[in-house]
Design a protein that fits this description.
The protein is of the alpha+beta class. It has two domains: about 70 residues, Alpha-Beta Complex (Type Iii Antifreeze Protein Isoform Hplc 12); about 150 residues, no CATH class. Helix content is about 20%, strand content about 25%. It has six helices and twelve strands. The strands form four sheets. Strands 5, 6, 7, 8, 9 and 10 form a six-stranded antiparallel sheet that branches. The protein has a two-stranded antiparallel ribbon with strand order 1-2. Helix 3 runs parallel beside helix 6. It starts with a helix and ends with a strand.
Length: about 300
């Protein structure tokens, strides 16, 4: 093979290697173009209960893979609907954050259809040391005081959403001013408004008037609910207390399904407890007929039923 052919083959191989190297570099290091989409976002910080207007919306461009579920692509989908949750500036507005019906404004618009808002008084001792915030999830505990056999605590409601704390419907930012305020008001009574069903509202009001209500803070991602929560009685704290007090074998509170309105009312002795059936009165025995029969000097008594 002559020298010219060798140079030609070498040149072709070099050019091919250079092109292959450039192609691989372009694929791995070169800029990539991603698909984008335009969605609606908040033009300013919007508190919960705000009715959405045109001035509250703006279009933003994000990568299609970052598009959140329920994102709105046009302003007509959000106009005249109220926010159920606070939204920050430039945060996408999604359908789950808006009320289902238009025309409602304020905190009442954040109450889901079929639910009710009921307020409960609490202090730091009965409200998780002041850690309650709007949109927190809590369990409601009911405690009835009394004698050793009457005292009990039961979980009245589970996984209840806090709609507001006082008049505040948004989570407060942690700061020095807020800490000082919390220190000054650590023993004062506050109110938490809970979002419950109508049946839960009845039980909650009954519990408020028959004993003491406490709120137990829970993880919002924990949605577990016990089917039949049982009451905690004094024997579970000190099993020998009743024996030391001279009441051996004290009465143990039976398991009660507090989700049953009749059983709950019967347990705490409130209205709605089933009335005991009146005992049927037995008729007195009918008097027997006694007839005196005289036969000469003989006296005989005949008894007829």
């Amino acid at each position: 093979m002559d020298r010219q052919k060798l140079l030609t083959i070498f040149g072709v191989a070099w050019v091919s290697a250079a092109l292959l190297t450039w192609f691989l570099y372009a694929k791995t290091k070169g800029p990539k173009t991603e698909a984008t989409v335009k969605i609606m976002a908040a033009a300013r910080d919007l508190p919960a209960g705000t009715m959405i207007g045109k001035k509250d919306l703006k279009l933003i461009t994000i990568a299609e893979r970052d598009k959140p579920g329920g994102a709105l692509v046009g302003p007509q989908e959000a106009l005249n609907r109220a926010l159920l949750f606070p939204v920050n500036q430039n945060e996408p507005i999604t359908a789950p954050k808006l009320s289902t019906l238009g025309g409602a404004e304020g905190v009442s618009a954040t109450i889901q259809p079929g639910m009710r808002a009921v307020s409960v008084a609490f202090t730091d001792a009965t409200g998780a040391s002041g850690l309650l915030q709007p949109r927190s999830h809590v369990d409601v505990l009911f405690t009835r005081t009394g004698s050793l056999t009457e005292a009990m605590t039961v979980t009245l409601l589970e996984d209840v959403v806090v709609l507001s704390v006082g008049r505040n419907t948004e989570v407060q930012q942690t700061g020095v001013a807020n800490v000082k305020t919390a220190v000054r008001s650590s023993t004062s009574t506050q109110t938490a408004t809970l979002m419950v069903t109508p049946e839960q509202a009845q039980k909650l009001e009954l519990g408020k008037n028959q004993g003491k209500i406490s709120l137990a803070l829970r993880n919002p991602s924990d949605r577990s609910i016990r089917n039949e929560p049982k009451a905690a009685v004094i024997e579970e704290i000190d099993p020998l207390l009743l024996m030391r007090s001279g009441r051996r074998g004290g009465v143990r509170m039976p398991g009660v399904n507090v989700r049953d309105q009749g059983e709950w009312a019967n347990l705490i002795g409130g209205e709605g407890a089933p009335k005991k059936k009146a005992e049927e009165k037995k008729e007195p025995p009918k008097p027997k007929l006694v007839v005196d029969v005289f036969r000469g000097d003989k006296h005989v008594q005949e008894i007829f039923p």
